[in-house]
Amino acid sequence: MTPVSAPAATGLPGRRRSLGPVGLVLAGGISVQFGGALAVTLMPRAGALGVVTLRLLAAAVVLLVVCRPRLRGHSRTDWGTVIVFGVTMGAMNGLFYESVDRIPLGLAVTLEVLGPLALSVLASRRAINALWAGLALGGVFLLGGGNFSGLDPVGVGLALGAGAMWATYIIFSARTGRRFPQADGLALAMAVAALLFLPLGIAEAGGRLLNPTTVALGSSVAILSSVLPYTLELLALRRLPAPTFAVLMSLEPAIAAIAGFLVLGQALTATQAAAVALVIAASIGAVRSQAGARRKPAGAQPEPAGGVQPEPVAAAQREGNGSAS
Length: 325
Fold this sequence. Notes:
The protein has about 325 residues and is mainly α. The protein is built from 11 helices and no strands. The protein has helices at about 10-65, 75-100, 105-125, 130-145, 155-180, 185-205, 210-235, 240-250, 250-265, 270-295, 310-320. The two termini are about 25 Å apart.
């Protein structure tokens, strides 16, 4: 598969060509964060683990039907990779939804983003990344008012755990993308995650998982948070450089805060809004620093972030970011 090509570096033609992909990425971000807000409204019906189960099951069914991945011809290492990928996906989703059951959506996404941000900073040896790490830590300090006394500490811990799982998810998404064609690995990993969470969802929600309204809402969460954003970003990454995509994804804590306010009535204080802005700035700065370090000489074909095909990049970013996010 041909790597993602960058638009022209200067001039209006390149800018115009980038408007369409940027719109697709932003539409995907809006979809996933409003899907997350819908999931919060569903939790009184099915509980956090029940919502995760419904979302993973619906997403797995759609991806398996669309991708129709081959089950034969894979090595034991291939299957081991996709199983770890699926377990990580399930853990990431479970931790995130448990966190948004306790703290506001925008703050949960902000804390979750720290996982990929830490991965980006640690993966680069450039000194400038110390600045981005400092900005992020400043944002976390503001977010908790110095001691997080205003937030549920369990919710904070769960969101940070989801961030750690997201960073692990990105690593195994890249490995899975190298071993499986197209989105086959994602479809199989989603099935693993769904099977992993099925007994947990049944234990928490029981027969409520079979309620037609609950099933419909859970399927809507899966479409908004997984299927639709993934499709939009897959189309966008064919014309948008992966580093630009990652910068746009860094804006999702702000989108999550807006979704939390409009759908759930979760308003941020001025201090919390400043904290979100600091984490966003740190994420954008870290991505741009890494992109600059990887930039090739003029005329060279650009390489997607992480050296993987665009589909796994999109999947890794999306399944974690607030959709878990």
